Amino acid sequence: MVASPDVTQKDRGRPAVAAGPAAERPVRRRGPRRDSVTAAVKAVVGVLGLFAVWELVVALADPPEYLLVGPISAFVELAERPGYFAENTFITLQEALAGFALGTALGVLCGAALHYSTTIRSFLYPALIAIDTIPKVALAPLFIVWFGFGFESKAFVAMAIAFFPLVINTYDGLGSVPHELQELARINKASAWKRMAKIEFIYAIPSILSGAKISISLAVGGAVVGEFIAGSKGLGYVIMLANSQVDLPSMFAAFIVLAAIALALFFLVDLAGRKLVPWKQHTR
Amino acid sequence: MNNEYAISVNNVGKTYRSRDGADNTVLSGLDFHVRPGQFVSIVGQSGSGKTTLLKTISGLQDPTEGEILVKGRPIREGLEDIAMVFQSPVLLPWRNNLDNVLLPLEFRGTRTEEATRYARELLEMVGLGDRATRYSYELSGGMQQRVAICRALVTHPELLLMDEPFGALDAMTRDSMNIEIQRIWRNTGCSVLFVTHSIPEAVWLADRVVVVGDRPGRIVADVEIDLPRPRGKEHRFSPAFSEHATEVESYIGVTAGIS
């Protein structure tokens, strides 16, 4: 959000529904489709470049295969055992998504409770901040004690990590409603329910989505950590198994898959955001 | 109590108690009345409590002293016939202009077919009839503020409170909005309380200019503006206009301690 000189101090930090001389002429659209195609091409070129440099370093330094392998070995490994990787990827993906969904639901609920109830806020906020300082992966052993060695414990680790960004972002988002709109609602005797449905939650959506974008990658990490500790399935298990067998191609293959699914999930959330918040692209 | 006024501000004071216990008096002994259909400008320097005064009149804040009567009745929050226009249009970016105008009625649960027709008429009146289904990001700042004015008028208010509504606009847009608001006011017949820190704007628009001094906010002068209406651009450079503006300015100079 650019604070141009004609925007007063009061207006900063709110979704700029542009006022002022700079906005006197209707905004001209830049072809957004062409922009995103160019960006996608650049991103792909960047990733391919990274692979190329990686492969080149491996080719030049020629390290032993138990220290480092190039991307080609990793992709060959993927191609040789597609069923194995697909199966384990699917498991990690399920754990991550379940944890993310649960963490998002609870996080939004909790953020809303913090915003709407001063009582809850004064009791819960300090406690939440305190819990947030605990590295969530440190809770993984506890969840295994509670929920066993299966799917649930990993999903709960993912949930614990995904939860906090959504609490904070929901709370912030609900607090970002311009005070004029709140006054407009009060002057017109809007019920609390109408205020929420017509203004506050829609205002909070961009902020909630930013939280979700952070959480979705974190959730994948949470699932993998759970599998590290007590897993017999999933990409975390693949990595641990490869570790014990000094099977670096398999390990790097798992890294690449992890990066790919985290990236794919991130873009899915981003895409959902563009569908849900089409106005945001115009008000930046 | 007197019922003939659209609004009576009777000896109103507002004091905030800060955390360390010190009292901060923002308004003190404000006393003025607005007749139905009158256009009253309130001028004063920043921090003189003009916005607090408007919020108190709208019922959003309670005065700590005195009382405010609307048509002889004490005000309360959510009074049906008061509407407010803010400095920033704050339109909802996910609603088109027509739906933005209808927002207050949705809050009240009285959005009807007839209301929708009226909202369209209002947009027509401010020259945005063909933009009803457009979004605010497609509009200039001046157009956005026109939509915000329609949003205020859609509830058929008898009293329109305007808090520096054109303060964020450039000078030329502001001039044309000043002409436009006079036309809107004539069409609707509502009383207007118009807060501004522009003396020319205050004088150009109003039947009366109330000068508020600062620390604490109190009425320094109440100047009758008897310029003929409708007032077009040519009036801004007339000797009578300058005379009024100079008079208003002299009161503001006194309160600021400039001799």
Automatic annotation (TrEMBL), chain A:
GO BP annotation list: transmembrane transport
Domain ABC transmembrane type-1: 89-269
Stretches of the chain forming a coiled coil according to its record: none
Transmembrane helix recorded as keyword: yes
Region annotation Disordered: where it falls in the sequence: 1-31
Subcellular location: Cell membrane
Membrane-spanning residues: 39-61, 96-116, 123-149, 155-174, 201-230, 250-272
Sequence ranges of Low complexity compositional bias: 15-24
InterPro entries: MetI-like, MetI-like_sf
Gene Ontology, cellular component aspect: plasma membrane
Keywords: Cell membrane, Membrane, Transmembrane, Transmembrane helix, Transport
This protein's record includes keyword Transport: yes
PANTHER family xrefs: ABC TRANSPORTER PERMEASE PROTEIN HI_0355-RELATED, ALKANE SULFONATE ABC TRANSPORTER-RELATED, MEMBRANE SUBUNIT
Name of the protein described by the UniProt record: NitT/TauT family transport system permease protein
Organism, scientific name: Pseudonocardia ammonioxydans
UniProtKB/TrEMBL annotation, chain B:
InterPro entries assigned: AAA+_ATPase (IPR003593), ABC_transporter-like_ATP-bd (IPR003439), ABC_transporter-like_CS (IPR017871), ABC_transporter_ATP-bind (IPR050166), P-loop_NTPase (IPR027417)
Domain ABC transporter: 7-239
GO molecular function, one term: ATP hydrolysis activity
Gene3D superfamilies: P-loop containing nucleotide triphosphate hydrolases
Superkingdom of the organism of origin: Bacteria
A matching Pfam family: ABC_tran
This protein's UniProt keywords: ATP-binding, Nucleotide-binding, Transport
The UniProt record lists the keyword Nucleotide-binding: yes
Keyword Manganese: no
This protein's name: NitT/TauT family transport system ATP-binding protein
Source organism: Pseudonocardia ammonioxydans
Organism ancestry: Bacteria, Bacillati, Actinomycetota, Actinomycetes, Pseudonocardiales
